[in-house]
Design goal:
Distance between the termini: 20 Å
Order of helices and strands: EEEH
Helix content: 25-40%
Number of helices: 1
């Protein structure tokens, strides 16, 4: 299992989470939701990336 960094900041009424190592970004109404959405987006991105190698 790989570990990646999540950087979270607030924009207006949403929290934005970013994984700078991979380049994925997501958002949510809470910090926890934004991180969960980022995790899903990052997993999907990496799956697609590995399939296209």
């Amino acid at each position: 299992m790989e570990l990646y960094t999540a950087i979270v900041h607030k924009e207006d009424n949403l929290y934005v989470a970013e994984c700078s190592e991979v380049g994925t970004v997501s958002q949510g109404h809470t910090i926890e939701e934004s991180i969960a959405n980022l995790k899903e987006a990052t997993e999907l991105y990496l799956e697609e990336f590995l399939e296209n190698l």
